[in-house]
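Worked example 3 (structure in, sequence out).
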């Protein structure tokens, strides 16, 4: 199982596409933990729609919904940690989306092929909102680690890679 932690704070314009991209994954052994960090927009309406959809259809393995007073992004992520059931954890931001329906399946295959691996760090596209469309302009986020397969020990990773990597750009065992 993989656990996705999804902090939510006032992301109504993006949240539907984000959740749709998670529910559409071909890999279904997913625990999704949604943490509503005190949203004041219509984010909770969208979350409730997907919670009801999950109850009716059992698409994912498990969905947990946590509501809390606004405490910030890190506190929202940390609130989910005690509920993690998966062997892998992916912190996805609620204004992000998985552009490929096999994204999680591919992640699981890499961890299966390299069982000694603790962290998978991968490439991302930054998508920017314009007045016409949400997420339509892509800019590849590049650095020297994205375009090559490397296995690093933890000290190398912490020193070289982690300072350049946002939390949503890797999956952790």
């Amino acid at each position: 199982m993989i656990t996705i932690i999804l902090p939510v704070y006032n992301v109504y314009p993006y949240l539907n596409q984000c959740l749709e991209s998670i529910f559409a994954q071909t890999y279904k052994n997913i625990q999704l933990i949604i943490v509503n960090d005190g949203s004041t927009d219509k984010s909770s309406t969208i979350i409730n729609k997907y919670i009801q959809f999950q109850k009716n259809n059992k698409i994912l393995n498990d969905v947990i919904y946590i509501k809390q007073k606004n405490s910030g992004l890190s506190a929202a992520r940390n609130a989910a940690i005690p509920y993690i059931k998966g062997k892998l954890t992916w912190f996805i931001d609620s204004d992000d989306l998985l552009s490929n329906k096999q994204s999680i399946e591919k992640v699981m295959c890499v961890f299966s092929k390299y069982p000694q691996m603790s962290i998978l760090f991968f490439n991302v596209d930054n998508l920017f909102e314009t007045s016409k469309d949400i997420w339509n302009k892509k800019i590849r986020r590049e650095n020297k680690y994205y375009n090559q397969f490397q296995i690093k020990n933890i000290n190398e990773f912490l020193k070289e890679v982690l300072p350049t990597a946002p939390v949503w750009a890797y999956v952790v065992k």
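Notes: The helical segments are 12-23, 43-57, 73-80, 103-113, 154-161. The chain is about 30% helix and 25% strand.
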